Structures are given as C-alpha cells and as structure tokens.
Amino acid sequence: MSILEISGLSKEFFIHRQQRRIVSCQSIGLRVGAGEFVGISGRSGAGKSTILKCIHRTYQPSAGRILYESEAFGQVDLAGISDRQMLYLRRNEIGYVSQFLNVMPRTSAKEHVASALLASCASERDASEKAREMLAYFRLPEHLWDIYPNTFSGGERLRLNLAHTMVKRARLLLLDEPTASLDAESKTLVRDILLKLKGSAAMIGIFHDLEFMADVCDRVYHLEEGIIA
C-alpha cells in the first residue's frame, strides 16, 4: 500500500523584479510504499529539494496532487489541506531533516531535540530522556548538550538536525542531504538508524553519495532539469 502518491507535481517561482518565471520541477509523479525507502538523485539545482519542500509544504506547489495516508485524517492532499492540519502532521507524522539548522534562540541542543517530542504532547521527563539517548547515539559530546548550537561545527549541526527529527519516529521521513557534511563514522550511524527504521516508516531521501544511497534505498528516481528521467 502506498503511504504517499504524487502526481503532476510542479513548482514555479516568479521573480517580480525581472518579470521571469523559473520552473523548479514539473510533472513529477512518484509513490512511496509503507516501510519503503525511495531515493531521489540528480545534479545540484535539478529540483530535488523542491520536491521535498512541496511535500513538507514549506513550498506551496504550483500544480499537482500529493496524496498522503494520514493516521489522524485518512487520505489527504498535502497540496491543499489547511495550515492547521499541515502543522499537526509536521508535529506528529512527517519528519524533515534539512542540511541547515534552525533552532529557536536561547535553546540548548538537548532542549532542541526534546522539543520535537514535547510538540507531540510527550511528558517533559520522557522527552528529556529520549533526547539524551538520541544525542548520545549520534555521538554529540555530552558537554555540548546544554550549549546553544550556533557555536557547533557543520557536522555537529547536521547530527543535531538528525537527532531532532529521528527522536519522534515519524511515519513519513523526508531527508535532504542528511550525510552532506558527515565523516565516515557518522555516516555509518545514519545508515544504521535508517535501516532500523525501514519497515516502520516510509522515507524519501536526497543523496549525492550514490554508494550510501545503494545501501539504504529500495528504489531511486533520477531527476534532470526538474523532470524525472
């Protein structure tokens, strides 16, 4: 059974100053089964991240349908549901790992990870305990847990992003270059946890590391200039 089915997805950006329309992706069609890991490959600028951002509704699609089998709402079109429903899904069902860290001001690393569980009504004690477990798994040194992450290195920030998203065990997990600035040991940690999640979560991942992709993905869609080749 498909947990996500995309048809005719397109996203255009209009640059008002230059009166230009830029097509990022067009006529995208793909599906993800329950417990399946689907990869998206392609050169930088091909439109890969745009697809994930449309699913997460960071971008509003210009056209198309994104049908998602929600635990709370049944089948919904992520391109057209209300902002309130989308916010609920982000908090409880859909996880997104970005290459870039976005943390509330004056929030420590541990608080940032715990906040993912507190948003879905977990107790403070449970959220704090699981946050510590996830930070330890991704081998962020304990002396950094109570520090503001703006001082972290690129690799530390990415591992914190992974911990923040992985701690809540989403039903649909979106991964935008989750190994981009990681060393070989950290990549192994990411691969192992993704393989462990397969079967309980559906996942879509963007990777430039084709060897890593071959280890974790069931199917791969290749994108060229915004179109699936």
What keyword list fits this structure?
229 residues, 4-stranded antiparallel sheet, 6-stranded mixed sheet, 10 strands
Structure explained in plain terms:
This protein is an alpha/beta fold. 33% of the residues lie in helices and 29% in strands. It has a 6-stranded mixed beta sheet, sandwiched between helices. Strand 1 and strand 2 (20-33) form a beta hairpin. The longest helix has 14 residues, at 124-137. The chain is globular and about 50 Å long. The chain starts with a strand and ends with a strand.
In short:
The protein has 229 residues and is an alpha/beta fold. The chain is 33% helix and 29% strand.
Q: Whole-number average pLDDT?
A: 91
> What percent of residues adopt helix (DSSP H or I)?
25-40%
What Rg do the Cα atoms give? 18 Å
Q: Can you summarize the main beta sheet? A: 6 strands, mixed
Model regions low in confidence, pLDDT < 50 over at least 5 residues = none
The run of helices and strands is EEEHEEHEHHHEHEHEE
Beta-strand content: 25-35%
Which strand order spans the largest sheet, edge to edge or round the barrel? Answer: 6-7-8-3-9-10
Number of strands: 10
Distance between the termini: 24 Å
- Helix count? 7
**Class by helix and strand content?**
alpha/beta
* Coarse shape: globular
